[in-house]
Amino acid sequence: MKKRLLVLGAGTAGTMIVNKLRHHLPAAQWSITVVDRDDVHPYQPGYLFVPFGLLAPEQINRSRHAFLADGVDFVIADVDRVDAPASTVTLTDGRVLEYDYLVIASGTTPRPDQTPGMLGDEWQRSIFDFFTFDGAVALSKALQSFTHGRFVVHITDMPIKCPVAPLEFTFLADAWLREQGLRDRVDLVYVTPLPGAFTKPISSERLGSMLDERKITVESDFLVEHIDTENKTLVSYDEREVPFDLLVTIPLNMGADFVARSGLGDELNYVPVDKHTLQSTTYPNLFAVGDASDIPASKAGSVAHFSVEIFVDNFLQLIAGKPMTRSFDGHANCFIETGNGKGLLIDFNYETEPLLGKFPLPVAGPFDLLKETRANHLGKLAFRWIYWNILLPGRPLPLPSHMSMVGKTQPNGATKTLATK
Amino acid sequence: MPVTTLSGHQIHVNDEGFLTDPSEWDEELGTALAAQIGITMTDEHWKVVRYLRADFATQGETATLRRVSTNGGVPVKQLFAMFPQKPAKKMAYIAGLPKPQGCV
């Protein structure tokens, strides 16, 4: 009998996994099925550019099926629940899918319903998000009539998908307001539950001083309890208040509800896994890859990409009855758009915070780490083509899945010469 | 790693004063650590700190405010009242656990 691999979610991680594994697993011995609720694959990093008219909405979405390899079965349906002890998945239309191995790759979703007042009368009137297609398009319209007042960018709680995106949005908003000649009439405020601009000290300091230079006020350690829609004010648990005329918020991010219904999630519906193998801590034939897992790494496409490469190698060893020998190090690599045609690049993992250096080749680059350059901006733009044409089809990209320490420096100039690989 | 002595306990701490070895902790030390940051421990404080210790023992990570609220049964609002301004950091400090990851 054929073995069955079932993948829930045809986003970045799920699509890469089925495409890479279809290439390795003979069709006579393995069926591969992927389930998603629709056939729309968004290029999520593109949402950032839509509000400022830098990318047209029609440049974001493609169909999921166009990026799935031949021999992969694509089922469009909502998942009701996973019965992990029985190795079955029930869909909301009543169908039952049996599996030998299951990969949960259902990502994370902004949930404005989780903060009182967020999804009320002011939603998409003075309160917007940009992490969804509809939100980004609605915000682009609202910005066209925004002329003055308090422009507040806000993060509800960590972790969030693409943790640098709110900073990028703020830098782009600042550049856009200057271009429109409105910057002097606007108070730009960045509200975060973190103690500073970012979590890791060196990049937080660098990014924090970039906010200062742009005269952006930072309200830190602010955990929102509710939004007072009548007075258009964010209210925190310790009763601090931040009024706004236009609020761009990152709602609480949560994993899929079916994960909770199946008893497989933590308090935010993320699946607990071993952070080096992505294997469920409870069920050895269950993995969670990409944003759906609880690993302490960025919820980002680059993490999905690097971890998929480790997962695929390990999976092939596992089904051959061998021990899994590869270990994911939490490698993340993010371009940070900073406005005016420039960008920053950061490269880090579980153990090492973002440092100065070059990427992908130590010393040679061409990209500078933690420095604003035009090349980093162009790299970010080029990545959209790479995503559709190289990454999703599962073609090899000449980037190491493990982070390298070669040529990286602390700001005080001490060079680390130790290579991690 | 600096070694310091607090209320008769010799402990290893990092540059922010967080214990680097959770096994060096006991409740007497917890009381002393709380006093260092101006907090007097009550039954409610102990409920939170004991939850953090128990959760860390099984999870290997310091619980977030949301986790303490959802699974530990103490509302976030109350955590802010008991451990003012930076509850996640203060709770971990008193419980002798690593500062919670910012989850980059």
From TrEMBL, chain A:
The GO molecular function terms of this record are: oxidoreductase activity
Organism, scientific name: Pengzhenrongella frigida
Q: What is this protein called?
A: NAD(P)/FAD-dependent oxidoreductase
Q: Where is the FAD/NAD(P)-binding domain?
A: 4-141
Q: Which InterPro entries match?
A: FAD/NAD-bd_sf, FAD/NAD-binding_dom, SQRD
Extract the Pfam families matched here. Pyr_redox_2 (PF07992)
From TrEMBL, chain B:
Coarse class of the protein's main subcellular location = cytoplasm
UniProt cross-references to SUPFAM superfamilies, sorted A to Z: DsrC, the gamma subunit of dissimilatory sulfite reductase (SSF69721)
Q: Where in the cell is it found?
A: Cytoplasm
Keyword line: Cytoplasm
UniProt entry tagged with the keyword Cytoplasm: yes
- Supply the InterPro entries for this chain: DsrC-like_C, DsrC-like_dom_sf, DsrC-like_N, DsrC/TusE
Pfam name, any one: DsrC
Q: Record's Gene Ontology CC terms?
A: cytoplasm
The source's superkingdom equals Bacteria
**GO biological process: one example:** tRNA wobble position uridine thiolation
So where's the catalytic machinery, residue-wise? C103
Q: Which GO terms describe its molecular function?
A: sulfur carrier activity
**Keyword Cytoplasm attributed:** yes
Q: What family does this belong to?
A: Belongs to the DsrC/TusE family.
Q: What is this protein called?
A: TusE/DsrC/DsvC family sulfur relay protein
Source organism of this protein record: Pengzhenrongella frigida
